[in-house]
Specification:
The protein contains four helices and 22 strands. By secondary structure, it is mainly beta.
């Protein structure tokens, strides 16, 4: 018999009722069930993003909003999508086996591409969006009750945000999963972000992408045994174009233990419209040649004395591929940037000084 069923059958009716009283008395994470797709999409939409044609395909009670200001989830407010019930995300973490099987089972091609067994309790929010900038981002936290007992055990609950539309660097996005683990092509799932398997919480490793993992044993505000850190993923787009976005989460292996994804309110937003405070006077940055094949020069005019500037380079999928110090106390200086190790294509740069925005733009590396 499935060990999960043995665990669930060990619950008593009294303990379940007592747990729900604890939710009312002590919970710090607050949730509100919402099944209106337009309401949820507009909660996510931020600066420069106009959403429309929202569709929600989730069981009753699986979707809604949350307030995490007093929790340790790392996001203040936003939308919560689960493969169970919102209530099961609310702390304290007084059980190792909370979940509900909603019985909505089907194979979505995008989430199944991440995990073929993720066909249980599927929850999907999708909408169209016109993006009025050339770069955007989303912030999220993925959490689960599958941790740590079912890591690498066939219950690889998964989440993805799939994008379809124009790609400024070439071939169009086609169900591209923009919420991959930073610095990798790996999707966010139980097996890909964890501190290893353990029959009891906490686990002791070996960890997998554990820089992005938070152990929540005995947590007071969230029920899930573990969750990711707040992850921000960027995407480069063509201003004014329409895109299709699909958030999807599903149970893998069975429909018992719950997982959820917390998406920040207004964090589905343009990067270009939320630029950090600029230094004054604003330094002029010129890049020449551009396009280039081997090297190019960044020329800085009037960069403040004794400043430290950093250049961060992203590929067309928003992945950081280079982080370099480009100036230190340099006036009217020139920094030579080399394309060593970078493939031909379109890149995006951002230059900051002491965490203040200086400049951003595009680089084209050609043969």
């Amino acid at each position: 018999m499935n060990i999960k069923y043995l665990l669930i059958r060990s619950w008593s009716v009294t303990s379940i009722i007592f747990s729900f009283f604890l939710i009312d008395l002590h919970a710090q994470l607050q949730v509100n069930q919402v099944s209106n797709a337009d309401t949820l999409a507009k909660q996510l939409s931020g600066s420069g993003i106009a959403v429309s044609n929202a569709i929600l395909n989730c069981p009753a009670g699986a979707s809604g909003t949350f307030n995490g200001i007093s929790s340790n989830i790392g996001i203040s407010t936003g939308v919560l999508l689960t493969n169970g019930n919102l209530i099961n995300a609310v702390g304290p973490n007084n059980s190792a086996s909370v979940g509900i099987d909603n019985g909505l089972n089907f194979s979505d091609p995008d989430i199944s591409a991440i995990e073929p067994l993720a066909t249980y309790d599927v929850c999907i929010l999708q909408f169209d969006a016109v993006v009025n900038c050339d770069s955007m981002y989303v912030k999220f936290v993925f959490g689960s009750e599958e941790y740590p007992e079912f890591v690498n055990a066939g219950y690889n609950d998964a989440f993805g945000l799939f994008v379809t539309g124009s790609n400024p660097s070439g071939p169009a996005y086609s169900s591209y999963n923009m919420t991959q683990i930073p610095g990798s092509f790996s999707p966010v799932s139980i097996n890909n972000v964890n501190n290893g398997f353990s029959a009891n919480c906490p686990a002791a490793g070996p960890c997998n992408n554990c820089a992005y993992y938070v152990e929540n044993c005995n947590g007071t505000s969230v029920q899930y045994d573990g969750f990711t850190t707040v992850i921000q993923k960027n995407l480069y787009v063509i201003p004014g174009n329409a895109y299709k976005f699909k958030f999807a989460i599903a149970d893998a292996g069975d429909g018992i233990y719950d997982s959820g994804v917390f998406i920040g309110m207004g964090s589905f937003s343009c990067l270009g419209l939320s630029v950090p405070e600029e230094v004054s006077p604003h330094p002029e940055v010129n890049v020449f040649p551009n396009p280039f094949s081997y090297s190019t020069s960044f020329s800085f005019n009037d960069l403040p004395e004794n400043s430290l500037a950093v250049l961060v380079l992203f590929d067309s999928f928003g992945r950081e591929v280079r982080n370099e110090t480009v100036a230190g106390g340099m006036n009217n200086g020139t920094y030579i940037f080399y394309a060593n190790g970078l493939s031909e294509g379109l890149y995006f740069y951002k230059i900051e000084s002491e965490n203040r925005f200086l400049s951003s733009g595009k680089l084209m590396i050609s043969e």
